[in-house]
Amino acid sequence: MRIFIDTANLKEIKEAADMGLLDGVTTNPSLVAKEGYKDFKDLLIKICEIVDGDISAEVVSTTCNEIVKEAKELASIHKNIVIKIPLIKEGLKAVKILSSEGIKTNVTLCFSPSQAVLAAKAGAYLVSPFVGRLDDISHNGMELISQIVTIYGNYGFNTQVLVASVRHPLHFVEAAMMGADVCTLPFKVLEQLVKHPLTDIGLKKFLEDWDKLKKS
Ligand code: G3P
Questions:
Q1: pTM listed for this prediction
Q2: Apex 87 CA angle, 86 and 91, nearest 5
Q3: N or C: lower Cβ tally within 10 Å for the chain?
C-alpha cells in the first residue's frame, strides 16, 4: 500500500519525506487555505521539489470545459501532478476527456460504491472515498472501502483506491487489510503509526542495560 500525506504544509511534507516512506501528497482547497497560500502554482512546485511521487492538485471549477482547462494548466506544472476532480456529473465528463488524453485524475469526494464505479468507468487513475467524514455521520467509512475493493476486483478496473479523510491508525490498518492501493494520512496520524509504548519501554531498558554493562 502506498502512503501519501494529506497536507499542504511544507514543513510537514518535508518531515514526512525525510522518513523515506512517502509515496505522494494529497492537497485540497481547504488544506491550501489553512496554510494561507495564495500562489497555488508556486506551492505545487515546492511540493514537487520535495516529493518524487503523485501530487494531487484539486480543481475549483465545476463545469466540464472549465475543469478540463484548469486541469491542463495544473498538469503542465509538473509531470507528477494528478488532477483532483470532484465526483459530480461535470467532473466525470472531464475525467473521461482527461484520461483519454493521458492526464491522471484523482476523483474526490466519493461517498458511495455507485459513485466509485462511475469514477472507474470514466477512467480515473485514483478514486478517493472519504472514510472519516462517513464515520462522522454514523456510516461505516471502511465498509465503503471494502465494497469498492471488491467491485473493482470483480471487473478488473485499473482505478486505484485511495483511502482519504483518515482520522486514526485503525483506518490505515483496515485499509491495508482490505487491500486498498493508497492511504493518505494527516501528519499526526503518520506519527501515530510509528509509536508504540512497548517499543519506547523496551528501548529504554536495552539502553540502560547496555550502559550498566559499560560501567561495570
Ligand atoms: O484530502 C481529502 C481528505 O483526506 C480530507 O479529509 O479530514 O477533511 O475529512 P478531512
A1: 0.96
A2: 70
A3: C
3-state helix, strand, coil in the chain (%, to 5): 55, 20, 25
Could you read off the pLDDT of 165-182 as tens digits, one per residue? 999 999 999 999 999 999
How far does the centroid of ligand 1 lie from the alpha carbon of residue 161, in Å?
15
* Host H or E run for residue 184: strand 182-185
With cell 476527456, the residue in question is: 97
Q: What is the mean pLDDT of the chain?
A: 98
Cell of 58: 484539486
CA of 100 to the centre of ligand 1 (A): 28
Ligand 1 pocket residues where CB is under 6 Å: 6, 26, 28, 130, 132-133, 164-165, 184
Cβ neighbours around 151 below 10 Å, total: 16
Cβ atoms within 10 Å, residue 138: 6
Could you give the maximum distance between any two Cα atoms of the chain, in Å?
A: 76
Contacts 24+ apart (CB under 8 A), 185-190: 185/3, 185/4, 185/5, 185/6, 186/5, 186/6, 186/7, 187/5, 187/7, 187/9, 187/12, 187/15, 187/16, 190/3, 190/5, 190/16, 190/19
Buried b (16+ CB within 10 A) or exposed e, 53-67: bbbbbbbebeebeeb
